[in-house]
């Protein structure tokens, strides 16, 4: 990215007449940038120079896209607890062993697995026609003959919550809350309540089934799945999502004032004793191996697409970042641990299993970050440092990331990725490399989440950022925790 570098650093005296081509610029960066980052004594000159070299090597090309390509082709969709997720663990173990990492292992745990056998939705009256719909993850089945009932429309989840309990009399409740695109994806937390808790809210109101407009921002006939959570004290009713154009269609018909009757059919199964697992690989620390920097992504995916953006991209980015450091022959002071989390989509189950297993050593987890927001470029970095030295190390990391078009932001943005949230509860600091996610919810949890949506150069920029972050925090003695002084 020579033009970004040129905008970031040059002074007129340094530039002179030397930079007539991209090669000249790269030479300039390699020659002068280490001098720039030495100015802060929080990292050694050698460590800073290695970080710059890792960054520039990544920008020349990494294995990230090839890794996602292999995972999504050789394994495909990887539903939590399924045989396919198990094959993904075998695939990852093979790769990570081939790359020569230390401590390559799978840490298994059991979960209640869920699988989709089929679903259908159609308008019966007034204008009979099929609808593009998908069962939400965890949905129970309808009776074999399906459910036919009138629709009760609600513009928002709050509107559904507001009606008295038990008043829907076996209708199918529909919530049509449309989500808008955002760069940071921050509205997802608000809108996905309609998916996660909506089914039980609708059941409490007396609905026989629950239907939503997909929690997604595209205008294609790809419905978005995703997990639901049944409350313990309400009947479990089947739940589906319509694609955005189908939701528009249903709302248009309802606006005419006629009663809309629809038919839904869902068949699913559960396996109360399914297996999942986290796959782990490390570069062992040369001085303080018990101090751990955690990077990673989740290995499971939904079943509709091949899980390329969610979260094959994160797997490719973080595996390639660790490989980049290993291939450079670098041994950091502390251990860098890659965790490929299992069963994220169904409730962060791998992250919970890790929190339990490593409870005694979480105080030695220095910092963590997950890549789980697709393949878009990183535009911002934030960290929840609570120490003065941590703040200075963060500033040094941000300076080395700046030529990638990454700006430091305030620390009030969400933590280091979904699988990091149990570790945050346990006091582990996090850093987040915020990606541009404007198209993320076009594809998220749909059949359209496939490899062709990823861009190699954008993944390489992510690898550069992860490698710089992991290397500098691991090759350091800085704590991000509040030391009380
Ligand atoms: Zn994800």
Bound molecules: zinc ion
Rg is 24 Å
**Uncertain stretches of 5 or more adjacent residues:** 1-39
Oligomer: single chain
Strand proportion, as a percent range, falls in 15-25%
Net shape = elongated
Structure classification? alpha/beta
Describe it.
The chain has 485 residues and is an alpha/beta fold. 36% of the residues lie in helices and 23% in strands. The protein has 17 helices and 14 strands. It has helices at residues 2-8, 12-15, 22-37, 45-59, 64-74, 83-98, 157-162, 188-191, 193-196, 198-204, 244-255, 308-327, 349-357, 388-401, 421-425, 440-443, 456-474; strands at residues 102-125, 129-131, 133-135, 147-154, 172-175, 209-213, 239-242, 261-283, 288-298, 334-341, 365-370, 378-383, 407-408, 431-435. The strands form two sheets. Strands 1, 2, 3, 4, 5, 6, 7, 8, 9, 10 and 11 form an eleven-stranded mixed sheet that branches. A three-stranded mixed sheet has the order 13-12-14, with helices on one face. Helix 4 packs antiparallel against helix 17. The longest helix has 20 residues, at 308-327. The structure holds zinc ion (ZN). The site of zinc ion has 5 residues, from helix 12.
Would you summarize the structure shown here?
Helix content is 36%, strand content 23%.
């Amino acid at each position: 990215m020579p033009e970004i570098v040129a905008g970031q650093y040059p002074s007129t005296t340094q530039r002179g007449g030397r930079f007539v081509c991209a090669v000249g610029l790269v030479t300039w960066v390699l020659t002068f940038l280490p001098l720039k980052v030495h100015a802060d004594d929080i990292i050694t000159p050698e460590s800073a120079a290695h970080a710059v070299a890792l960054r520039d090597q990544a920008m020349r090309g990494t294995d990230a896209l090839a890794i996602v390509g292999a995972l999504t082709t050789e394994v495909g969709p990887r539903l939590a607890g399924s045989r396919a997720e198990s094959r993904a663990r075998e695939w990852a173990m093979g790769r990570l062993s081939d790359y020569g990492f230390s401590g390559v292992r799978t840490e298994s745990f059991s979960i209640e697995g869920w699988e989709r056998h089929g679903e259908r939705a159609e308008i019966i009256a007034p204008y009979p026609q099929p609808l593009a719909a998908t069962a939400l993850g965890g949905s129970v089945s309808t009776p074999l003959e399906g459910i036919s009932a009138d629709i009760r429309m609600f513009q928002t989840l709050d509107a559904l919550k507001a009606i008295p309990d038990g008043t829907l009399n076996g209708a199918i409740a529909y919530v049509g809350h449309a989500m808008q695109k955002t760069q940071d994806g921050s509205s997802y937390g608000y809108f996905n309540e309609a998916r996660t808790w909506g089914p039980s809210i609708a059941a409490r109101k007396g609905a026989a089934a629950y239907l939503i407009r997909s929690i997604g921002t595209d205008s294609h006939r790809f419905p978005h799945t995703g997990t639901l959570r049944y409350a313990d004290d309400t009947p479990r009713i089947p739940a589906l999502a319509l694609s955005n154009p189908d939701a528009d269609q249903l709302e248009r018909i309802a606006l005419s004032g006629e009663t809309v009757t629809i038919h839904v059919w869902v068949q699913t199964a559960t396996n109360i004793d399914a297996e999942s697992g986290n796959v782990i690989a490390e570069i062992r620390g040369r001085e303080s191996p018990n101090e751990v920097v955690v990077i990673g992504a989740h290995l499971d995916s939904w079943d509709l697409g091949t899980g390329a953006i969610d979260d094959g991209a994160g797997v490719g980015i973080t595996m390639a970042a660790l490989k980049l450091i290993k291939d450079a022959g670098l041994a950091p002071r502390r251990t860098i641990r890659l965790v490929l989390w299992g069963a994220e989509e169904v409730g962060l189950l791998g992250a919970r299993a890790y929190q339990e297993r490593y409870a005694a050593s979480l105080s030695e987890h220095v910092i963590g970050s997950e890549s789980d927001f697709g393949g878009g470029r990183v535009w911002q970095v934030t960290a929840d440092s609570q120490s003065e030295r941590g703040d200075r190390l963060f500033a040094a990391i941000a300076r080395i990331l700046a030529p990638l078009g990454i700006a430091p932001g305030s620390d009030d943005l969400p933590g280091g990725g979904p699988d990091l949230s149990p570790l945050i509860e346990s006091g582990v600091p996090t850093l987040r490399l915020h990606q541009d996610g404007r198209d993320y919810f076009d594809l998220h949890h749909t059949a359209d989440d496939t490899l062709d949506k990823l861009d190699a150069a954008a993944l390489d920029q992510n690898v550069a950022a992860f490698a710089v972050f992991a290397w500098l925090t691991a090759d350091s003695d800085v704590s991000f925790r509040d030391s009380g002084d």
